Amino acid sequence: xxxxxxxxxxxxxxxxxxxxxxxxxxxxxxxxxxxxxxxxxxxxxxxxxxxxxxxxxxxxxxxxxxxxxxxxxxxxxxxxxxxxxxxxxxxxxxxxxxxxxxxxxxxxxxxxxxxxxxxxxxxxxxxxxxxxxxxxxxxxxxxxxxxxxxxxxxxxxxxxxxxxxxxxxxxxxxxxxxxxxxxxxxxxxxxxxxxxxxxxxxxxxxxxx
Length: 209
Hints:
Helices cover 24% and strands 32% of the residues. It is α+β, with helices and mostly antiparallel strands. The chain is globular, with a radius of gyration of 18 Å.
């Protein structure tokens, strides 16, 4: 993620000392159907038919009618072969990850997730629920800056747009079927699993001292 101006301004005052930073992770999902007509870019159908609830599609493809992209679909356990997840490949280290970012001062974390998805991939998405809260770090960067992050992970529903690397932070952006995701670190793998679980309550850690 690019370093926001407010972080740069703070660094001018505190140097490399530890910063506590709110961040967000966006798990953007959309229904997937393997029916050939739905996978035809020439027909303009890619990623769209499952969202169509008109009578002809319901009659011809009842499976897709069942997978219409409303909130109810995402509030139940999801089979990985029926869902695509938005994944980017980071330009700095080549890692495959969901979209992540830093929450700006005064910004709601869900708004930050929506903003980061649009800025990084050109995709419009709508937040549905909080998946988890987690402390990430401490991290020491190559320039010796130190940071700790409070990450808020959200499940978002795809609304519009085909992903592309819209800024210099990523070399690729694409929807990938959830049972074919590339290798990711444990945090992101666990968060995707949580998104598919249908569990409404957010996951958090509580330590007695």
